[in-house]
Write a structure and sequence with these properties.
Elements (H helix, E strand, L loop, with lengths): L4 H16 L4 H5 L7 H5 L9 H9 L2 E5 L5 E4 L2 E4 L8 E7 L2 E6 L2 E11 L4 E10 L22 E2 L27
Antiparallel strand pairs: 1-4, 2-3, 3-8, 4-5, 5-6, 6-7
Length: 182
């Protein structure tokens, strides 16, 4: 048991050294001779990233959102359920691969399949929800429990899209036409 961060780092480095220089059953089964990771990998090295670098790599697809009173959120015009037991609570939406995960306090609340356009940085499709039992569930429970077949994702296009202007001025029509008689 380590008592300080420096001691923890030293113990971790010792573990890595032992792991990389010990024969592994999986390598034996695959016929590697010798079955030692450092020999198999030779000069191959992984990449080491700083904390800022890791945050930059993973933060592009993190979206903090606040649930409404029903436990739903909106992301890029898609409105979907997260957790009814967390009304008006800030949750984190995380896109990883083709998964969109809703998380609160490091607990996955719901998962959806999604398509994310990395160039536009927008979600293009959300569907097939899966909900998890968590300690945040409403103690009252749901009248009708949700299952993946019941997950409903609403797409709400932005109502404020700009309309193309006509190249010609439009003449305003009169509401009433005054007609002179006699």
């Amino acid at each position: 048991m380590s008592k300080s961060p420096a001691e923890l780092e030293q113990t971790h480095q010792a573990f890595i050294q032992t792991y990389n220089t010990t024969a592994h059953q999986g390598l034996l089964k695959d016929g590697f001779d010798p079955p030692i990771p450092t020999e198999v990998l030779a000069e191959a090295k992984g990449r080491i990233y700083s904390q800022d670098g890791l945050a930059q790599k993973f933060s592009r697809a993190l979206f903090p959102r606040t649930t409404n009173c029903y436990g739903c959120v909106t992301l890029h015009s898609y409105h979907f359920y997260v957790e009814q037991g967390l009304p008006k609570t800030k949750v984190l939406l995380w896109v990883y691969g083709e998964q969109l995960r809703a998380m609160f306090a490091n607990v996955v609340l719901a998962e959806y399949h999604c398509r994310y356009d990395w160039q536009d940085r927008k979600v293009k499709d959300v569907r097939d929800g899966m909900f998890y039992a968590t300690q945040f569930a409403s103690p009252q429970g749901l009248l009708l429990p949700l299952n993946p077949q019941d997950s409903l994702v609403l797409y709400r296009p932005n109502p404020f899209t700009r309309q193309a202007r006509s190249p010609f001025p439009v003449e305003q029509l009169w509401l009433f036409e005054l007609v002179h008689t006699a």
